[in-house]
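In this supplementary section we document a worked example of the pipeline. Step one takes a protein sequence of length 138 as its only input; no multiple sequence alignment statistics are reported here. Step two produces a three-dimensional model, which step three serialises into structure tokens for compact storage. The input and output of this example are shown verbatim.
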Amino acid sequence: MLIINAEGLILGRLASMVAKRLLEGEEISIVNAEKAIVSGSKEATFRRYKQWVDRGSREKGPHYPRRPDQIVARTIRGMLPYKKARGRDAFTRLKVYIGIPEELAREPITTLESADMTRLSTIKYMALGELSRRLGSW
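The serialised model returned by step three reads:
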């Protein structure tokens, strides 16, 4: 089982790398989901996510998550062939957590250097925790 610390990692890069590993059969847990980074201006990022959350109705959907751990999982799900058995099986091997749970605190935690925020040439970014607070559920 691979445990990845999402702190300071760009969400899209993290999601694509994790999706590939899930399809290869690895079990992955992601901790500190609220500290993942979404690049771009704060206002444009908030507007885009707010449109997704407001779309549809409570009864019929589509249902888009507001919590940081669920946003990370949904982003990874979008990079998997989710409607096929292979993609659904891969998605079941993923667990995403806010913070570090006690059962994983003693395990070795890794990070993905190729998804690190230091690769950003811009200073415009937003943490998922801040985005979730602005969306109103965390």
